[in-house]
Fold Cellulose synthase-like protein E6.
Amino acid sequence: MNTENGLSLFETKAAKGGSSAVAYKFFAFTVFVSIILIWLYRLICIPGAGEGGRWVWICMFVSEILFGLYWIITQSVRWNVVHRIPFKNRLSLRYEDKLPEVDVFVCTADYVIEPPTLVINTVLSAMSYNYPPEKLSIYLSDDGGSEFTFYALLEASEFAKNWLPFCKKFKVEPRAPAAYFERNLDLQDHVSAQEWFELKKLYEDMKSRIETVVQKGAIPKEIKEKHKGFSEWNSKIARNDHQSIVQILIDGRNPNSVDIDGYLLPTLVYMSREKRPQRPHHFKAGSMNALIRVSSKISNAPIILNLDCDMYSNDSDAVRDALCFFMDEKQGQKTSYVQYPQRYHNITKNDIYFSVARVTHQIELAGIDSNGGTLYCGTGCFHRRVSLCGMKFSEDNRSELKSVKDEIEGRPIEELEEASKLVANCSYEEGTQWGKEMGLVYGCPVEDIVTGLTIQCRGWRPIYYNPSRYAFLGIAATTLDQALVQHKRWSEGSFQIFLSKYCPFIYGRGKTKLAAQMGYCVYLLRAPISLATLCYAIAPSLCLLHGIHVFPEVSSLWFLPFAYVFVTKYAYGLAEALSCGDTLKSWWNSQRIWLFRRTTSYFFAFIDTIIRQLGFSQTTFIITAKVVDDDVMKRYENEILEFGSSSIMFTIIATIAMLNIFSFLWGIMRVVLAAESTRAFQQFIPSIILSGLLMMINIPVYQALFSRNDKGRITFSVLWKSVIIVSVASLLPIY
Ligand SMILES: *[C@@H]1O[C@H](CO)[C@@H](O)[C@H](O)[C@H]1NC(C)=O
Ligand SMILES: *[C@@H]1O[C@H](CO)[C@@H](O)[C@H](O)[C@H]1NC(C)=O
């Protein structure tokens, strides 16, 4: 085989030069020593039994132990950060006529929360990849079992006949029509204006047809007569109770499936697996597994791309980039999946809900990758089919990237549909390894992470690829409620993994590197670490109100390690964020969101996990809505926090904000009135600084409590609750 002087298809580069890595290690060492000193201080200076503040002292100590251990774990993802660089030109030169087939899976679950037009935009962006169409198949899994989604997909299959040639002819980007037409016609794009307007009209018409049908709540008879598929929806179908539906809307094997220019179209399949009320359906993992089996009956491609329905492809070459990692002659054999970061197209300038998480995506995940522990995040991920299906990696059992299609060739479309329906039935998985050793693992709300871990433990090597031009774009949360609920679910599921048999330290022992196991735990341990943050946000301020000091006085030597850790941690965090492209303001916003998440989402995740471990409640899955009204959208665009509802999470946020403004003012008053001796004054300085910082972070909360009049402000009931809680807490003695 011609490998062009052995040039590889991708390269791995260390992110930083050697010297700064040494500097970093020295810095980390000094922080580590300071942490030890802080622990020592807590041990040596603990107030005697019976003295005021002993319990608070112990709480602070436990928090500092948690913080310290967590900090040690996070070092594993900063030690060695790598970047991957694929060379798709070399791929084309060597393999253009031997490119493997690719199946794209798009998952949707509810036509109200995820409107059909959103879904088909993702589908169309995948259909129009710069890739041979006869090697591309798109599967839509509709867990809502909705004929509206089916209808939208049918419309999309027609629209594709115009859209794909247009994309090809003018090389337009991005290839999701909604995102493309959002921009105005740019003459520099070399697009014929006439065709642009024609296509835009075609798209708008299709969109309004779909929206009209959804609004009416029923599909007109004349549309139903156009496709046999509608006959599946009889009067008995309910969302959670229906037979398997598989409809091949475009059969890529058929030479008559062509666009308006006569070029072949990719295969397009609608699937809604069987659902019965008494049978567990395992949420998204169940639908992914059904997709794996159904696609094996229709195209059986060796590479699978997995997308959420709200995540369109922003780069028509993404498939080629990813293939470099699979097809490299030396290292490609071992690649199990290629994970792209989750990016969003709906981000405001200063990212008020901290959705982008640049540091996580550019540093932490790339750091885990260098240890071989890339996380599978459930979307924007290319898989090798055999590794996803449970095969172990072995050097001599090399899998070829060819699809085995003996069963498929030449069979009529109806037979394929029937065969597919069988494997999408509830009963099919009984007594099989699906959900255990094969496919996505069941029984955990964040099944992706567990699945990724099991794949690594079977000897495969995943890759994290973070291109500068974002390849996949989803929709970020646009209200605080969405943002917090989403994180509650993630952190809760992650913490469950830590407590289960899949805990990376146990399950991965001997199979993955220790650093990779630690890297996983950066995410899995977010829930318990919330306790430490809660303690830090509440205890010192409360003690300030009661005149109890919990930090060493400023003139004491013990104060130094506290100051050092605090200042360097924030300075380093800020430098890191700026180096990743955050603005100063977005860094500041991120500090607020961290505080909110840790005191609410992660805290509730912790409580719920413990309750579940004790056997009290069942996992529930909340899909967060992707659409909000115009008013809310306006506020989002103006970067104003959206509270609105009276969730218990907001009560906590408001209470902490109130507590800190009280204690700060109280502390300042004491200082001003000079009611304290110099020594006592010095003892309270650290608490006053802490309250002051928390107060500054919470400024938007005070605005939402007192000065805003819009619907997104904090409700009065939350305001009163927080005032009452803070008053009671400051009056009650705390011993
Ligand atoms: C995303 O945000 C932009 C402005 O930032 C807005 O114009 C657009 O409507 C939003 N789209 C969705 C789907 O929320
Ligand atoms: C999406 O793609 C377009 C061009 O195709 C590019 O200009 C834009 O920067 C990309 N979006 C992001 C967020 O990278």
Notes: Residues 346, 348, 475, 637 surround 2-acetamido-2-deoxy-beta-D-glucopyranose (ligand 1) (CB under 6 Å).
